[in-house]
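INTERNAL AUDIT FORM
Audit reference: QA-55
Scope: verify that the stored structure record matches its stored sequence.
Auditor: D.O.
Record contents follow.
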Amino acid sequence: ILYLATCGNLFFIKQKMSCYRIMSIGSWSSKVSASKIAHYNSDLDIREMAKAFNQYTSSKYSQQMHHYITIINFRIYLYERNYRKVCSARYKELFLKLSFKERLYYSVCSKFPMIDKIYCRLKNKTGCRLNDNN
């Protein structure tokens, strides 16, 4: 869609022209939501697509792409449990949208990473790993 938008005019039609099967068996959304690793890999691909689009357009939309990539990076750092990055100034706006409980946990873990490791062990042996199905 981004590529096509660079080739000519786009028009908005304010009526339903199709339906989207959210979470239907076999749909992309159900497959991706089934595992953290699928979400993670999808976000890695989306980030690369956004970077490639920015390069393709000679940075014409660099401000928008920078904002979009920031959102994707924030999610990637959450998957990777990289709480120092999540709590950094670059992601402050996104960080503040999290619940108080999440902000507290990530803030503590950014300073004391061992707490996250202990929590994961207590929760279960695989519950905090990126490739689990929770």
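Auditor finding: record pair retrieved intact. The mean pLDDT is 87.
Action required: none
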